[in-house]
UniProtKB/TrEMBL annotation:
<dbReference type="InterPro" id="IPR000031">
    <property type="entry name" value="PurE_dom"/>
</dbReference>
<dbReference type="InterPro" id="IPR028923">
    <property type="entry name" value="SAICAR_synt/ADE2_N"/>
</dbReference>
<dbReference type="Pfam" id="PF00731">
    <property type="entry name" value="AIRC"/>
</dbReference>
<feature type="domain" description="PurE">
    <location>
        <begin position="265"/>
        <end position="412"/>
    </location>
</feature>
<dbReference type="GO" id="GO:0005829">
    <property type="term" value="C:cytosol"/>
</dbReference>
<keyword id="KW-0067">ATP-binding</keyword>
<dbReference type="InterPro" id="IPR033626">
    <property type="entry name" value="PurE_classII"/>
</dbReference>
<keyword id="KW-0436">Ligase</keyword>
<dbReference type="InterPro" id="IPR050089">
    <property type="entry name" value="SAICAR_synthetase"/>
</dbReference>
<comment type="pathway">
    <text>Purine metabolism; IMP biosynthesis via de novo pathway; 5-amino-1-(5-phospho-D-ribosyl)imidazole-4-carboxylate from 5-amino-1-(5-phospho-D-ribosyl)imidazole (carboxylase route): step 1/1.</text>
</comment>
<comment type="similarity">
    <text>In the N-terminal section; belongs to the SAICAR synthetase family.</text>
</comment>
<keyword id="KW-0456">Lyase</keyword>
<keyword id="KW-0658">Purine biosynthesis</keyword>
<keyword id="KW-0547">Nucleotide-binding</keyword>
<keyword id="KW-0210">Decarboxylase</keyword>
<dbReference type="GO" id="GO:0004639">
    <property type="term" value="F:phosphoribosylaminoimidazolesuccinocarboxamide synthase activity"/>
</dbReference>
<dbReference type="Pfam" id="PF01259">
    <property type="entry name" value="SAICAR_synt"/>
</dbReference>
Length: 426
């Protein structure tokens, strides 16, 4: 173990897998230490070799992946990296199912589905489940088999709602990582993840995600693969071959650093009056929720047209992708003026009042030809629309939007289950 492990008091060994050991942390109840091994395996450990330094690479990869998912808003057991070869996580009762998402048909899928051509693209991604049983070769299970097994973990019966939730999270995790890798011209072909039940009775993404977990093809070219398939395909494993696999894994870990860049886009809210500040602040808060930086300016297109255009020119001259949001009541000249002079998108979000709202809104809706600014009434909707526009440019914003959609779905699912349960009890 790394020298840093003396900062926590370890208890008993809870589990040992092919590539990791899980220890209880007695000084931090409810938490565990996942210690990676310098070992690589394939074919349910039918092939296995020592690979010096793999534990460091695997831990770095897992920590970066979980941190990226946390930025997006996907809940997992990961807490923090503890040392070069271990990280601290929530204690979980693991569910013995591997959840596999595939974008491209390759590998075992072709063997199980004769007639499907390698490279067939699944849209939406293909979801498969496999029961973890080395002796049986990790057989593929259907949804019905999982339900009929009536497995219970962490005091939670894995029923239809739980299977649905894990299915949704699995696809979301894949799509977020797929989008991230695409920014580096790498295709995420497929990947596997696992879930556990924490001490709160919640199902969370758990275990470890590293280069053992996926197929990754730079430029979409299988010949350039950087994953464990290189090891699987070796007719004979040599020291040179293991060194190549390790270099590939290091390549992946290093490039993960480039998947969480600082945002290079923004929203700018133009207020026609300082009285619109509270309304505009709601727009800014929504933008920031999705990781979109937001600035606020005050400028009246009616009373200070030249200054409005000067501010606009400053922003466009900085060459930072920008969405402009015009907040102006009564007669909205601000949005149309910005739209008529800007090359970037403009959103009208007039703070409609009850007295003249029905009349005032037409100044945002009926515009001269050649103007393309859209109009929304809700400040939250304006911030959301700005984030959606910029998600075309920034994969982290897209990921937050995708995870928010997932979390909304999960929240409704949990409330619906609770409602049904309470009715049954009554």
């Amino acid at each position: 173990m790394s020298e840093k492990t003396d900062t926590v008091k370890l208890g008993k060994q809870l589990n040992e897998g092919k590539t990791k050991i899980v220890y209880e942390i007695t000084s931090q109840p409810g938490k565990v230490l996942l210690q990676s091994k310098d070992k690589i395996t394939a074919g349910n450990a039918a092939r296995q070799h020592e690979m010096k330094g793999k534990a460091i690479v695997s831990t770095a990869t897992a920590a970066k992946v979980f941190e990226l998912l946390a930025i997006a808003g996907v809940k997992s057991h990961f807490i923090k990296q503890h040392s070069d070869t271990a990280f601290i996580a929530e204690a979980c009762d693991m569910i013995p199912i591997e959840w596999v998402t595939r974008r491209v048909a390759t590998g075992s899928f072709l063997k199980r589905n004769p007639g499907v051509t390698e490279g067939y693209r699944f849209c939406p991604p293909k979801l498969e489940m496999f029961y973890k049983d080395d002796a049986a070769g990790d057989p593929q299970w259907s949804r019905e088999q999982i339900l009929e097994s009536k497995m219970t973990h962490g005091g939670l019966l894995i029923g239809p709602d739980e299977v649905d939730m894990m299915s949704k999270v699995t696809v979301c995790v894949f799509e977020i990582l797929e989008k991230a890798w695409a920014t580096l011209d790498c295709s995420l072909i497929d990947m596997k993840i696992e879930f556990g039940v924490n001490n709160k009775g919640e199902i969370v993404l758990a275990d470890i995600i590293d280069s053992d977990s996926w197929r990754l093809w730079p430029s979409g070219d299988k010949r350039l693969m950087k994953d464990k398939q290189v090891y699987r395909d070796m007719a004979e494993v040599t020291e040179e071959g293991l060194a190549l696999v390790k270099r590939n894994f290091e390549w992946v870990a290093e490039r993960l650093d480039h998947l969480t860049p600082k945002p290079n886009c923004r929203a700018v809210v133009f207020m026609g009056s300082p009285s619109d500040f509270a309304f505009s602040q709601k727009i800014a808060e929504t933008c920031q929720k999705y990781g979109l930086p937001c600035e606020m300016r005050v400028s009246s297109a009616h009373k200070g047209t030249d200054e409005t255009l000067n501010i606009l020119a400053q922003y466009e001259g900085e060459n930072i992708p920008t969405v402009f949001i015009a907040v102006a009541g009564r007669s909205n000249g601000l949005g149309p003026v910005l739209s008529g002079n800007a090359s970037w998108p403009v959103i009208n979000c007039p703070p409609i009042k009850a007295d003249w709202g029905n009349e005032d809104v037409w100044s945002s809706l009926r515009l001269p030809s050649g103007l393309g600014c859209s109009t929304v009434i809700s400040p939250e909707a304006a911030g959301l629309m700005a984030a959606q526009i910029m998600s075309l440019h920034d994969h982290l914003i897209w990921s937050r939007l995708r995870a928010n959609k997932l979390n909304t779905w999960l929240g409704l699912k949990k409330v619906d289950k609770k409602c049904r349960t309470e009715q049954t009890v009554e």
